[in-house]
Amino acid sequence: MQIADEIVQQIRSGVLKAGDMVPSESELVERYGVAGGTIRKAMVEVRASGLVETRHGKGSIVKDRPPVRLRSSDRFRASHRRGGKAAYLAESEQSGATAKVSVLYIGPMEASADIAERLGVDAGTQVLARRRLYFRNGTPVETASSYLPWDVVKDIPELFAENPGPGGIYARLEDHGHTFAEFVETLQARPAAKAEASELALSPGAPVVHLLRDAVTKKGRVVEVCDTLMAADQFVFQYRIPATD
Predict the structure, then answer these.
(1) 215 with 244: CB under 8 angstroms?
(2) Could you tell me the residue range of the domain that residue 167 belongs to?
(3) Rounded to 10 degrees, what is the CA torsion of 40, 46, 48, 53?
(4) Could you say which of 62, 93, 112 is where a domain stops?
(5) What is the DSSP string of the chain?
(6) Which residue, of 62, 89, 105, is where some domain finishes?
(7) N- or C-end of the chain: fewer Cβ atoms within 10 A?
(8) Is the dihedral of CA 176, 177, 183, 186 positive or negative?
(9) Taking every annotated instance into account, which residue ranges of this chain make up the domain HTH gntR-type (predicted)?
């Protein structure tokens, strides 16, 4: 929609800055010479961009969002773990951002059918769940839930702690002999559900990226499944793809 595209471009270019009010419906009707219904449809598109938030009785306000952050496959390099940096902290440091992780839950959970299939266990089997909310420069940008087989984690007490230590959970798994061969990721873009939008401070229906990752050891076992949801306007994905066998 042309009107929505123009408003979004004004936000991205800085004509409308963080904290500014988007012009009211009546102002937009006068500016564009269209009906109110057309403006309301355009504002649905603008809100879906994730660039504004609607406050009851006040209208739409341009959100203060941190700049886009590159998410690269290099974040899983073993050298980062040996240097004591988990993937999220390593990539945030490279981009010059201030990172924070809030742990929401750590404990046993029954594996859903999808998670169980990925881990190679029966549905309903007890696994360790670790759910986190990630912040960049004070803004929530990502949620992540890790699921690990109970027989793998039961003898690694650090994995039950909020801070598993330098290098994160992958470093602790490797300390106990689970050496990684690869990380397999599947991504899907979709609109955020109401609860997801609230958790990530997005407008309802704003685009998010749903990522599922399997951490596979050299023995071919999946020792972690990570279910991640990211604010789509905050990430650019970059992957290295070998051109040879």
Answers:
(1) no
(2) 69-238
(3) -90
(4) 62
(5) -HHHHHHHHHHHHTSSPTTPBPPPHHHHHHHHT--HHHHHHHHHHHHHTTSEEEETTTEEEE---PPPEEEEGGGG-HHHHHTT--HHHHHHHHTT--EEEEEEEEEEEEPPHHHHHHHTS-TT-EEEEEEEEEEETTEEEEEEEEEEEHHHHTT-GGGGSSS--TTHHHHHHHHTT--EEEEEEEEEEEEPPHHHHHHTT--TT-EEEEEEEEEEETTS-EEEEEEEEEEGGGEEEE----S--
(6) 62
(7) C
(8) negative
(9) 1-65
Rounded distance between C-alpha atoms, residue 38 and residue 113, angstroms? 44
Residue 160 burial class via C-beta count within 10 angstroms: exposed 0-12, middle 13-18, buried 19 and up: middle
Pairing of strands 69-72, 235-238: parallel
Extract the tokens encoding 172: 């602790």
Block means of pLDDT (10 residues each) for the chain, 245 residues, are 84 84 92 91 83 80 70 69 63 67 96 97 97 87 96 96 92 95 94 89 84 96 97 83 77
- Rounded to whole angstroms, how far apart are CA atoms 31 and 111? 54
Structure tokens at 35: 């009906």
**Amino acid of residue 14:** G
Tens of pLDDT, residue by residue over 193-231, are 989 988 988 777 888 999 999 999 999 999 999 999 998
pTM: 0.72
Residue keyed to tokens 């549905």:
123
